[in-house]
Design a protein that fits this description.
Number of helices: 4
Strand content: 5-15%
Strand order of the largest sheet: 1-2
Helix content: 25-40%
Number of strands: 4
Oligomer: single chain
Largest sheet: 2 strands, antiparallel
Number of domains: 2
Length: 158
């Protein structure tokens, strides 16, 4: 049975963080988890983003990977099931031990509202998100996913 409270942020279709303070608290929790995993480079990257969050309300992640729009609504990250362009700059998992090599995309609120499918995402983030680099999604072919045997909490949900 799924722990509703634990997974509710993932199931919620509304923005997860309603205030900057909530987002900063979540960032601090992520940093604490990473410290336990001894990932010092990732900590430095997150702290850099955390510092930037205090200076302005929105972070510029570049253009939407689906429609190409560039504005403050480009803020919704998508983890794709393919290996990204640059190892170590995508999504990974400290639970199952896969490195941060998975491709990510960032899309605008409008593309979220129209339920853009992953097949419609034309570009992916190439490098770290704040570098705003883009690469073609069509160039990525190697499958990437969690090691499901190391995620017993997801039994029945995959």
């Amino acid at each position: 049975m799924m722990d509703e409270e634990r997974w509710s942020p993932l199931l919620n279709t509304e923005p997860i963080y309603s205030t900057l303070d909530d987002a900063k608290e979540a960032m601090e929790n992520i940093v604490a988890m990473i410290k336990k995993a001894d990932l010092s480079k990732e900590i430095d990257d997150l702290l850099s983003i955390y510092d930037e969050m205090g200076e302005k309300e929105t972070i510029d992640f570049g253009s939407c990977c689906a429609c190409g729009k560039e504005d403050k609504t480009v803020r919704n990250f998508v983890m794709l099931n393919v290996k990204g362009h640059i190892p170590g700059t995508g999504w990974g998992c400290v639970v199952c031990g896969i490195p941060a090599d998975g491709a990510t995309a960032v899309i605008c609120d409008e593309c979220v509202q129209r339920n853009v499918r992953t097949e419609e995402i034309k570009w992916v983030i190439k490098g770290y998100p704040l570098e705003k680099g883009r690469g073609l999604r069509s160039e990525l072919t190697e499958y990437w996913d969690h090691n499901r045997s190391r995620h017993p909490e997801m039994d029945g949900l995959w």
